[in-house]
Inverse folding.
DNA sequence: GCTGTTTACGACGACCGTAATCATT
DNA sequence: AATGATTACGGTCGTCGTAAACAGC
């Protein structure tokens, strides 16, 4: 499982629409479809009920959608915190060159 | 930021030793070094103090190490939960073929 | 017939492993 | 000199986009 998968699935779960979700995620519909299919395969569980025209979450999909948002929020929060710490600690900066001059 | 990065960083933070961490992660040292470097670049913050022979966490790295473990635990828990739900809901299985027969 | 998802296919890029280099003890 | 991390480089796999096929309203 990768964060990319969770981002895509969260976007799809929010809209329940492949086209719109793909557009919001800045990818094409086939790429999203493939990624979701791969996620389902890896999880060994069907996450969506696709009746070709109707997209709805299965119980497992609902759970994953909920968890995905929490996880993605935690990741974003951590990233913000780490950047803040680095910013307040010049010695921990990315390219803090004390330099001889 | 990807989970792969977090897994690698968590493993490295646990041992503070590239060779041992890489071995435990089933990759080579250069691959780990590259992944960590990439993570630092993307985060815009130095996560480790590498004095060539001595590896120690920066404040930002310490924070990320802590967050990474929490996030990875949440991911693992979610995966378990989703699989359990799918297992208890045959209709949500991966290849549950009701079949005409 | 049209909207919307899936499948097929080719190209680009990322990740990993091997080999060589450099630094520290 | 030996250990350990980095850099360079080539191969391979994954991911994405375009094009075509399929299904429901």
């Amino acid at each position: 499982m990768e964060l990319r998968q969770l981002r895509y699935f969260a976007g799809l779960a929010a809209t329940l629409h492949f086209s719109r979700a793909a557009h919001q995620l800045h990818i094409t519909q086939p790429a999203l479809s493939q990624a979701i299919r791969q996620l389902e395969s890896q999880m060994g569980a069907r996450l969506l009920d696709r009746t070709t025209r109707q997209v709805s979450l299965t119980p497992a999909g609902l759970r994953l959608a909920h968890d995905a948002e929490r996880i993605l929020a935690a990741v974003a929060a951590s990233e913000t915190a780490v950047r803040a710490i680095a910013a307040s600690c010049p010695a921990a900066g990315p390219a803090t060159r004390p330099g001889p001059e």
About this structure: Strands of chain A lie at 48-50, 55-57. Chain A has one domain: 3-88.
